[in-house]
Amino acid sequence: MKYHLITLGCQMNISDSERTRTVLDEMGYIWTDHEEEAGLLGVIACSVRQKAIDKVYSKISMWNKQKNKRNLITFLTGCILPDDKEQFLKLFDLVFPMSELKQFPEVLNQYGIVTPAGLRAMGNSMHMNESINEFWNITPYYTSPFEAFVPIQNGCDKFCTFCAVPYTRGREVSRPSREILEEVKNLIEKDIKSITLLG
Questions:
Q1: Which label site among 16, 69, 76, 77 has the fewest CB atoms less than 10 Å from its CB?
Q2: What does residue 62 show for φ and ψ, rounded to 5 degrees?
């Protein structure tokens, strides 16, 4: 089955999207640039900008209409405010936080889609409330041959009145420095010219 992802928002969401592609590739799905060819459609969402949320509503409305004509599974993850998540739960087949990305094979299997990775996941005693540290261990599918985004922390403890991050990504968690340095070292060895640290 082919899949297509739409990534909205900041560079952190781009980085999340690259890890999502790794997980989907390992599940046996095949990337397509054309969403009309895909049987699995996902959005890496951004609740920070209303324009991005409007685009999510537009896409899911169109996709749900297409379900009358073809088999289609939709999912949503990324930066999602609680109020937005409540609405999207009614519209998407699957909605999950990015920290639970490694559970995706198991979740899809429970939804009725069996993949080789899903069968392996069933045999593991993994918990749905997986930490962001396990998410960081997913090697990204870098989409650029010269530029890479490397997350160094997730979430925030500041709760500024103008910012949604503590509500969409949770409390602040720092990534271990050895993991950051290892990822950067590997990128340099791959001749990546531009590395952006995200947090």
A1: 69
A2: -65, -45
3-state secondary structure of 56: helix
Domain extent listing, the chain: 2-122, 132-198
Question: Which CATH number does 132-198 carry?
Answer: 3.30.750.210
Per-residue pLDDT band at 126 (split at 50, 70, 90): very low
Quickly state the pLDDT bin for 3 (edges 50, 70, 90).
very high
Q: How far apart are CA 144 and CA 155, in angstroms?
A: 25
SS3 letters across 143-190: CCCCEEEEECEECCCCCCCCCCHHHHCCCCEECCHHHHHHHHHHHHHC
Per-residue pLDDT tens for 48-67? 888 989 999 999 999 999 99
pLDDT for the residue numbered 127: 36
Amino acid identity at 9: G
Q: Is the pLDDT of residue 115 over 60?
A: no
Give the pLDDT mean for 72-95: 91
Hey, is 50 helix, strand or coil?
A: helix
Residue 79: closest CA among 27, 28, 16, 138: 16
Q: Is 90 exposed, middle or buried (0-12, 13-18, 19+ CB in 10 A)?
A: exposed
Is 106 strand, coil or helix? helix
- Enter the DSSP assignment of 98: G
* Residue 137 DSSP label: T
